[in-house]
Amino acid sequence: MHMNRIIKAMIVSCMVLLILAAGFSAMAAKPAYTGLKCPPAVDGKTGAVTGRVTTAINATGMGNAYVAIVNASNVSEEYFNTTSDAYGYYQFLGVNATYNATNASDVGPNGPTPYKIYAYHPVYGDGYSAAFGVDASGGSPSGGGVPPITVTSTPTAVATPVSTPVASPVVTPAGTPVPTPLATGTMLPPTATPQPTPYVIPQVLSLLAAGCVAAWMVSRRKEN
Description:
Helix content: 10-25%
Strand order of the largest sheet: 3-2-7-8
Mean pLDDT: 66
CATH superfamily of the largest domain: Carboxypeptidase-like, regulatory domain
Strand content: 15-25%
Number of strands: 9
Largest sheet: 4 strands, antiparallel
CATH class of the largest domain: Mainly Beta
Number of helices: 2
């Protein structure tokens, strides 16, 4: 009788762990506040930012990733969002300029680099870029361009500093034709973060399910 109680307790524990594991794998640190206005545009200019999200495993593009421009000082605040195409490319239009490279004193109220890129993929996880800005004069953005995004397999993403220069995103003043995402873009590879394969969570769920079934079968035999 005592053994049956232990086995039943094990079954309940397995089910709780399965529920928690399933919920944990579905979590993401997506911005809590969406549709917010960007900081005021410097010189009334806006630009376009294009890029690409790739996986650290084989550097191929991650299609259908959730991509957003967020407040660099408070990443829970989102200005724009979109979904990457089948090759991992994305594009944002009408992004307010934040500084003017030809006039050092011409800077927006939130500084020259008030933006970050956030990316989330349901299999590979999520991450942030370092801060960047948009040049009202149409030059390269400050902050070294849009650095790589670290996409981890955990629900909480950590930005990874980069020590080498990276390619700048395409930033154009208003009225300038914007290239298509497939023609140009900044590579945003998730780098420098060791991670297990994306199949770890399914494997854990399978093992927990197998344990529950085994415990249930033993319990049935004891009762019979």
